[in-house]
Write a structure and sequence with these properties.
This protein is mainly β. It starts with a strand and ends with a strand. It has strands at about 1-10, 10-15, 20-25, 35-40, 45-50, 60, 70-75, 80-85, 90-100, 110, 115-120.
């Protein structure tokens, strides 16, 4: 079992920045890919960003590149999602998740955090 504890999120004005955190625990040696997907109201889950747990490969949704970055503090074992130049369309529940591959993160994840609400006001 892997537990994912999320923090961060909340309300931010358009153009502002926000950082989300995800702290995995438990059988972290089983993790292959870890990242974020989001669920906007009335829409399907959307891949945001991910990285290989034991590598340096980073993947960011093309539409979010340049505004969103994913990183990991290996010493603290924390995953981050940094959001810049936030837009009202970024309003969503953001989930931290683990999966076998990047492609399966948003829908066939192995483990998922509880989610955190991000609201971007215009």
């Amino acid at each position: 079992q892997v537990q994912l504890v999320q923090s961060g999120g909340g309300l931010v004005q358009a153009g502002g920045s926000l950082r989300l955190s995800c702290a995995p625990s438990g059988r972290t040696f089983d993790i292959q890919v870890i990242g974020w997907f989001r669920q906007r109201s009335g829409r399907d889950s959307e891949f945001v960003a991910a990285m290989k747990w034991n590598g340096n490969e980073i993947y960011v949704a093309a539409a979010l590149e340049g505004r969103f970055t994913i990183s990991r503090d290996s010493a603290k074992n924390i995953l981050y999602l940094q959001m810049h130049d936030s837009e009202p369309e970024d309003t969503a529940v953001y989930y931290c998740a683990t999966a076998r591959t990047v492609d399966t993160l948003k829908s066939e994840y192995d483990y998922r955090g509880p989610g955190t609400q991000v609201t971007v006001s215009s």
